[in-house]
Every structure is written in structure tokens, then in C-alpha cells.
Amino acid sequence: MTPVPEKMKLVEIVDVDAPLDPRSVADHEPERDFQLPDVIGILPIRSAVAYPGTVMPLAIGRERSKMLIDDLVPHETIFGLVAQINADVENPGAGDLYRVGTAASVLKVIRMPQGSLNIIVHGIARFEILEFVQTVPYLKARVRMVEIKTRKTKQVKALMVNVRNIAGRVIALSPNVPEEAAILLENIGDPSGLADFLAATLNIPNAEKQALLEEYDPRKRLEKISRALTSQLEVLELSHKIQGEVRQSIDKSQREYYLQEQLKAIQAELGQGDKRTEEINELQSRVKKAAMPESVETEAFRELDRLSKIPVASPEYSVLRTWIEWICELPWSKSTDDAIDIRKAERILNRDHYGLTKIKQRILEFLAVRKLNPHGKSPILCFVGPPGVGKTSLGQSIARAMNRKFIRISLGGIRDEADIRGHRRTYIGALPGRILQELRKCGVRNPVFMLDELDKIGQDFRGDPASALLEVLDPQQNNTFSDHYLDQPFDLSNVMFIGTANYTEPVPPALLDRMETIELPGYTEGEKMQIARKYLIPRQLREHGLKKTQLTIPEDTLRAIINSYTREAGVRNLERTIGSLCRHAATRIAKGASKRITVNLSGLAKILGPHKFESEIALRTATPGVVTGLAYTPFGGEILFVESVATPGKGGLLLTGQIGDVMKESAQAAFSVVKASAKRLGIDPEQFARNDYHIHVPAGAVPKDGPSAGIAMFTALVSLLQNKTVRPDVAMTGEITLSGLVLPVGGLKEKILAAKRAGIETVILPRRNKKDLSDVPKEAKANINFAFVTKAPDVLRITFEG
Ligand SMILES: Nc1ncnc2c1ncn2[C@@H]1O[C@H](COP(=O)(O)OP(=O)(O)O)[C@@H](O)[C@H]1O
Ligand SMILES: [Mg+2]
User: For FRET with 487, which of 453, 548, 661, 664 sits at 20 to 30 Å CA-CA?
Assistant: First the structure.
């Protein structure tokens, strides 16, 4: 039990025997000498419960109740307040009332002009109804006062501290409760009085409030109140938190909104106002011109009519006007004419992109079908691949090839459904969602609309943007897309949607189902050289105002940029780096320092700094226990280092480095295989009892998972236990089973490209992946030795020379 603080013991129980006075609100002790008459008038109350010791205002409307009040002599006559079981009963009889109520006296009667009464009553003591003795003109009952017996046990005192404490926090969080309530709380020394005071403030259903009145034991009552207060506190704290978050996002739009309103009011004062008729006439003709569907137009005219009746200075006027303007500006029927010429389309695709033969082929097929059957439901394409492989720019080319406008929205970080389909109009500063905003901007209803980065959509308590996107992409539904702001169906079926993602896994499966994915796995060194020569260098030269003759980038310089300065699946950094060379050249030429510039290898290092990716592998693998693995990530393939060390211990295995569960299990398996074949590998099994083993897979912000590092972990452990380093030019990928078998893995092309970028000469692969090698471009395979393994120990013959 918690000790009772000193302060508590000092609080005295105060007796009240002075005549009641509204100022004595803080005295919550039931009067000791209070005598309840045998028969009292009963005032039914609809949706509240009165408690002893509290003061409450009541509005009296019913004739019977008025009569009762009129018969009372203020300050002297006691009557009973009893809650109705059902608040809707207009003329409650004996059966409609609870049996326990609160005896009270009237402190004040305020007569309202319309004849109704407001009274302020002071609750004095609990009573039970024994029987009703009168029903006309108002209820009277024979009653018995309930004596509350309080023992201030330690437990009760502790409970009081507890509820005071929670109530204090509730008060602090409740904007409508004055701070003084907290002080009042401290001054109620009687447990029953404290419980009743708090019960009156609780935000709980009436039936529960009545239950608190009917609970005579103050200790039990305090316990119930403590529970109710705690849950109220939780709700308050949560809503406080949510409010804080919401407020941040609303504050800005609300501020702008009010400023605009003020500006309007000022303008009206200055006599520039009432352009209303003019404005409404203009809106009317705009509505007509917008050529919207009939039902929408009817609604627009109805709202326009409403607008003409609202005062211009009222906030609603501008809310409504903005809405009508929005409706007028949407491309309800404007569209561009499709001009699909397959041969021209092919030219455009080839002009904009190097390689990508299969993908271009698929796009042309798609366009051909579209041309022959313009109104058929064509599939939604989704380009999947690492950054910088041309997903976005392919979308732009498609738009150009079809002679359509192009729109792109990035879904990265969109977590609110309202971002897609807007906020309701009633919400201050509301706007339509991104889909309609972009359509308005582009002005036609049939653009190519790219939904970029589908894998980055978020989801939180404000709703799920993915489900809104589902509706956007569903050909069955998207001809009546409903934006919350617009509140009218908009036909999206003429929009051609294209998705992009780095990775398909994070894309919600329902969305992925709606689309046909087209993979763009990344480029080989040779492809990148071509892309740079034919596309990136000319473009960057143009953008920097340079002539072709003014900057020369020789073959080996370009190769060094690709291999030593940018290591990526796409060509984004390559283009950026070429941009820096152009900037450098442009500066020198503008200064007059040179006329034409050739960037050779040594010049390159001067402009870009030392190589970024030099011989990291040799450095890392110089220690036993470190092995180069190959991984497949959203950014293409990557090499990764598997490190292991032994520390004194008892044979445990520790895994670190942001690795997922599958990878962890695969490490366990590798460890077991090493232990099981220790003898054959020349490893002293005694070692296991003395050491703990730690495997770490460092670097990269991307969490790593999957089983494909199995043989790398196996090899790292063997390297550690045999105290031998592995060859630095070898990298490996493969799943390992408990029996030491090596199973095939995915992402082969990406992994091989990554190995090549890193300067690896030998790649170890599962034998069962051999057939997949034919899908990997020749270019990528050139100058790499492939070694195929069936069992884990085969790896060792390759990694340890000799
Ligand atoms: N095959 C290619 N041929 C020519 N340029 C390309 C090719 N692939 C990518 N690019 C260029 O690389 C840059 C990055 O492409 P981008 O479309 O932004 O990639 P993503 O959207 O896949 O991240 C663009 O300037 C694009 O034109
Ligand atoms: Mg992109």
C-alpha cells in the first residue's frame, strides 16, 4: 500500500450547519443534523443525475415541474431530484424513475421571459423512494434518507490521493474545466463528498452515473470513479495528441483562409464590395461552358442559387464560390485527340531511350491494341526497377507517342486518403485530392497519368490511400470516381494510368493485381556507355550551353566515371556527374581560361575528387572471417560483406546489421552446417564450447533479408575458424540447407551486374541457377568466371586458394 502523504492527514472534516448559501459550494460534507421530511415533492430530471454536495443549474420546462417549484419556499423546503430511466418520456410516472435520488434545496429561481424557469439547486443527501403518495399535480413520495457511513481507512485515503491525482490531470487536459476545480478538489476531505463531486463531473452515460449514486459504500464508489477517470484520461491524452498533429497541418490553411476573409471584409468596407451580381453572372456562364454532365450541372446551378443568397462577407460565401470555381475548371469534356501512329511511336521511343528492346516492344503492342480498339479496357502498365533506369521518362515518351499530355504524381510519403480524394467541403481550407488537382492543371480528361513510387505509399490513422487508389485504377469504378471535396462523380476512364515502383513487394497486392508489371532491371557497363554517349552527354552539353567541340570525354574517362564514381543500376548519378564535368568546362570557358576541354583520367580525379569506390573489397577481405556476398535490393544488385568474429563465450550465435528473420534463420543453418562438418573441415570442435560467434552484415540503410546470403555466411564462419582469408576477387550467392545443400536464388542479373561494377572476377552460384544465366546479357557476363556449386564445402575449394 502506498503511504499516505502528510498533507492529507491535515485535511479536517468540516461540518456545515450554517444556512445554505451559494458561496459555500466548496463544503461538500452532508449536513450532520440534516432531517429529511417523510414525504417530499419529486422533480424528475431527464438527462442528468444530481449528487449530494454539488450545485447544479436545471432548466424547468414541464408544467408539473414548474408547479412543484412554485410550491417550494426557497432556501427552506427540501424536495427530491430523481433521474428518469428514459430521458425521452415526457410525463414520467412512478415506473419511469429510478428509486434512489438526491434531496436538494433551491438556491435561486430565475424566471425566463418565455415563461420557463431556470433554477439552481444544491444537493444535500441521498434518499430512497419507499412509495409514491401523489401524482397530481406533481409527484410526491414517502422517502427514507440514506446515511453514508465513512471509515477513513488507509485504503480509502490512498484511493482519495489516487483519484485526486488523476482528476488533476484530467482537469489540466480539459479546456472547459476551470483551473480552480483542482483547488476545490484538494479541499474536499470527505471520501463520499469527493466521490460525489467527481461523479458529477464525469463524462459517462446516465445509467452509470445513476449506478454511482446508488453505490452507498464510498470506497467502492471511489474505485469505480478511479477506473472511469483513468479511461477518460487515456481518451483525453490520445485526443490531445491527435489534435496536436492535426492542428499543425490545419493551422496554415486556416490562417490563410482567415486572412483572406479579413481582406474581403476590408475591401467591402472600402466600397469595392458588392460585385456579387457580376460575379454570379460570370460563374453562371462558366458553369454552362464547362460542359459538365447534367446531374453535376444541376447541382452547380443549385449551389449557385444558394450562393446568391448568402452575404458576401460570410465565410460560407467564399467556401461555396471556391467550390463552384473548382467544378467549372475541371476538364469534364475537354480532351486531346489521340493520334497513334505506331511507326512514329517507335521512332519516339527509340529517340528517347537506348536499348530496352523488350520493353519498347511491349509498349508498342499496347499502343497498337489501343489504336485498333480505342474504347477497350487496356491493362495498366507498371514499370518496376531501380532508380534511374528510365521509368519516368518512358512514361513521358508514351505520352508523346500518343500525343497526350503527361502528369506525374509521386506517391512517396502519401499517407492520408485525403491526399488522393480530398477533404470534405465543410472542412476549412478543404481542397480536392491530388488526382483532380492534377487533372485541372493539365486541363484535359485524357492525359497519361503516372503514379510514381507506388511502393512508397504509407498508411496511418487518417485512412488508407491505397484503397482510394484501387478505386482510381479500377475500370469498373473509375468512371464515377468520387472526390470528397467535389462530392460529384468524375469520369476517370479516359485517363491512361501508368504506375512505377522500385520493388513490387511493398506495393499493396490488391493494387499490384490491377496492373501488368514490366521489369527494368538496370544497365550493364556497355549499355551505360552507350546511353551516356548518345543521350546523357548531348543533353547535358545542351543544358550547359556548350558546343559538342568544347568538351570531350574520352572512352576511358567515361568508363572510370561509370565504375569508380557512380555505382548504380540506373544512370541517374552518371548523368549528374556528367553534369558536373559540363559545369566545370562551362566555368573555365566562360572565364576565358580555355577554349575546349578534354577530361582525361587525371583531370577527372581533380574535378571529382579521388575515386569513391576503390578496392574496398581487398581492404575488407584482408581479415579472416569476412566474405563478399551478393544481394538484391530495391536499388538493384549490391555487394555486401558478411563479417564474423569469435568472442569468449559458450557457443552462441549473435546476428546484427538490420537483417530480417529469413536471413537470421539462414545464418543459424550455416552455423549448424559448420558445426556438423567441423572435423572434416579441420576445425577443432572444442572451440565451439569456448566461444560465442557474431555475424554482422554492415552498411546500407536498406534492411536486408532473404536466404541468399547462406553460403556467404557459411564461408565467413569457416574462414574465421580456419583463420584463413578468402580471395578478394570472389563473390557468392546461394541459399544453404541444414544438410549443406546449395539452393538457387533470384535477382541473378542484378547481382552479376553489381559484382561486375565492384570489380569481382569470380562469382559463385548455385548449380541449379546455371540455366538462368542465359537470361543475363552477354555484356554482363564478359570477363567473369562463374563457378557452380551443389554443396556448401564446394565453395571452399574456390575461395581459399590452393
Ligand atoms: N535507356 C535509356 N536511354 C536514355 N536515357 C535514359 C535511359 N534510361 C534512363 N535514362 C535517363 O536517365 C535519367 C533518369 O531516368 P528516370 O526516368 O528519372 O528514371 P526512374 O524514373 O526509373 O528513376 C533520365 O534523364 C532518363 O532520360
Ligand atoms: Mg522516376
Answer: 453
pLDDT tens digits for range 685-737:
888 888 999 998 876 556 677 889 999 999 999 999 998 889 888 999 999 99
What is 67-81 written as a DSSP string? HHHHHSPTTT-EEEE
pTM assigned to the model: 0.54
What are the tens digits of pLDDT across the range 22-70? Answer: 333 434 444 556 788 899 999 999 888 999 988 888 888 888 888 888 8
Burial class of 244 by CB neighbour count within 10 A (0 to 12, 13 to 18, 19+): exposed
Which residues, 6+ apart, have CB-to-CB distance to 137 below 8 Å?
64, 67, 68
How many whole angstroms from 389 Cα to the centroid of ligand 1? 5
Between the CA of 392 and the centroid of ligand 1 the distance, in Å, is 7
| Residue of 226, 708, 719, 749 marked catalytic | 708
Name the residue of 351, 382, 389, 502 to mutate for ligand 1: max ligand atoms within 8 A of Cβ: 389
643 in Cβ contact with 695 (< 8 Å):
yes
Sign of the alpha-carbon torsion through 777, 778, 779, 783: positive
Percent over 70 (pLDDT), the chain: 91
- How far is residue 380's CA from residue 696's CA, in Å, rounded to a whole number? 42
**Distance of alpha carbon 608 from the chain centroid:** 39
| Maximum Cα–Cα distance across the chain | 115
Nearest Cα to 100, choosing from 72, 123, 67?
123
> Cα of 90 to ligand 1 centre, how many Å?
75
Q: Is the CB of 356 under 6 A from ligand 1?
A: yes
708 is annotated as an active-site residue: yes
User: 45: which 3 cell numbers?
Assistant: 430530471
Strands 481-482 and 117-134, by their bridges, are unpaired
Q: Cβ(433) to ligand 1 under 6 A?
A: no
Residues forming a β-bridge with 631: 638
Ligand 2 (single-atom ion) residues, CB below 5 Å: 392
The answer, yes or no, to whether the previous bond of 137 is cis (omega within 30 of 0) is yes
Between the CA of 493 and the centroid of ligand 1 the distance, in Å, is 28
Name the residue at shortest CA distance from atom 4 of ligand 1. 353
Q: How far is CA 320 from CA 279, 325, 482, in A?
A: 13, 9, 18
Residue 528 Cβ contacting ligand 1 at under 6 Å? no
Handedness of CA 642, 645, 651, 655 (dihedral sign): negative
